[in-house]
Every structure is written in C-alpha cells, then in structure tokens.
C-alpha cells in the first residue's frame, strides 16, 4: 500500500459520528487498530459497537469523520469492495448456508478475493483449476485449525451452535483478512467453549497475523486476549488502553454500574 509502513495503524477511526433521526449512535469517535493486534471494543448495550462495525463495512454512512484502512480512505470504497481489501466480519447471529457442508461454507469466504470468480465455479469439483485447488487446500487447513475435521463434510445446519460459530470464523479467515471484525463471538457459548475460543483466536492471530477488532460482552474473553481495549458509552470513547487500565478506569466502572442499577 503506497505510503503505508508496518508502524502505521491498520485502521484509523477519526471523529466519526452517526445519527439515526434523533438518535446519535456514534459521536466524535476516534481510535486506531495496529497491524496484528487484538483490539477489544466494549461498552454497555446500545453504546454503538455494532454501528461502528457497520460503518467500517460501509453499511452505514457516517455523518462526520473519517475511517482509513491501510492508508486508504475507506469511506470512498463501496461496500462490495470491502472484503477484497482485506476486511472480514463475523456476525452476532450466525449467517451460514445451512444445507451446504462445513467445507463448502468455508470456501464461500474466498468469493470476495480478487480473481476468485463466482462461488458456483469455485465449488465445482472435480475439474478444479490450480487456483481453486489452492483455495480448497486453504479451506482444509482452516477446517483443521478450527477443529472441524470431523464435521467437514456434514451440512452446517445440524451442528451444535459452538461448532457453527467456528465454521463462521473459518469462513471469515478464508478471505485472508488483515482485519477481522468479530461481533460477539462468545455469545451463546458455554464457559468451556469461551475459554477454548480465546485460545483459538490468539493461536489463529499468531498463525495468520491478522488484526482483530473484538466486540464482546464477555469481559473474561476481552480482557484475557486483547492487546488493547477501547471502551464506549453512548456512542463516545470513554477509555482506551491496556486491559488492566481500562478495567480500572472510573468512567468504565461507572458506565457498567450505571446500566446495571
Ligand atoms: N438502523 C438503526 N436505526 C435507528 N437506530 C439505530 C440503528 N442502528 C442502531 N441504532 C441505535 O444506535 C444506538 C447504538 O446501537 P448499536 O447496536 O450500535 O449498539 P451496540 O453497542 O452494538 O449494542 P449491543 O451491545 O446491544 O449490540 C442504539 O441506541 C440503537 O438503538
């Protein structure tokens, strides 16, 4: 990327504001995500975390501010080109193709890559080109990394929730993202599955080198695996720093206690 270097932030959010009629969902929000780091994004319900994801993926148009990704003005990029730039996302509510196998679901994640062509061509087997063979090799690698080998050829629909969440993660990684947006990956998981997920995310980051923006209510997970945490409330950034700094920040404590009261 012209002008970019390893010390530059990968994602730069500056002064972003989003309004829905009378509701201000984000106001003057600024923070960075550096290459390869896991950045936790916390805040009570309605703080604006999902709205921010929707701005980064170009679903919502900010009223003010700028978002740069790898030195590029993201707000000048149409939504359908975001994945091709190296930004992938998982969703709060799973969005898998239920009747397709786990492997084929993972393969669909490659569809956004330049030169991949359309999904049906990619899934045609036999007759794979060298490119599709390489993609299948990557899909199998991800299936293995995400401990999905036993279910690789089963339809996604019948699998336990925690397993389907891992399929969604594998699919997002298929696009070789440099930034992974994780929207509440621990939602609906058991304690044991959350612990496992934390270890898995760190191992995957170490293996593939992506940065992750982790929106999560499960504090144990966020504080356990994030390199840095940004805390939001009412659309604003109220704290940022190491997990320990943010956990102890009076504004963060007040935001959570205030909502719980
Ligand atoms: N499409 C929309 N139209 C109107 N208001 C919206 C829309 N999307 C979000 N909002 C409002 O913007 C604010 C921020 O919502 P958002 O979903 O981003 O919060 P959040 O931090 O992701 O919450 P949660 O943790 O519950 O997922 C809320 O007041 C919400 O009601």
From TrEMBL:
Q: Which domain of life is it from?
A: Bacteria
Pfam families with a match to the protein in the record: ABC_tran (PF00005), BCA_ABC_TP_C (PF12399)
Gene Ontology terms: cellular component = plasma membrane
- Decide whether keyword Nucleotide-binding is in the record: yes
**Keywords from the named record:** ATP-binding, Nucleotide-binding, Transport
Q: Name one GO molecular function term.
A: ATP binding
Whether ATP-binding counts among this entry's keywords is yes
Gene3D superfamilies membership:
P-loop containing nucleotide triphosphate hydrolases
User: What PROSITE patterns is this protein classified in?
Assistant: ABC_TRANSPORTER_2
Q: What InterPro entries has UniProt attached to this entry? A: AAA+_ATPase, ABC_AA/LPS_Transport, ABC_transporter-like_ATP-bd, BCA_ABC_TP_C, P-loop_NTPase
ABC transporter domain ranges (all copies): 11-259
Read off the PANTHER family from this record: ABC TRANSPORTER ATP-BINDING PROTEIN, CONSERVED COMPONENT OF ABC TRANSPORTER FOR NATURAL AMINO ACIDS-RELATED
This chain belongs to which protein, by name? Answer: Amino acid/amide ABC transporter ATP-binding protein 1, HAAT family (TC 3.A.1.4.-)
From what organism does this protein derive? Klenkia brasiliensis
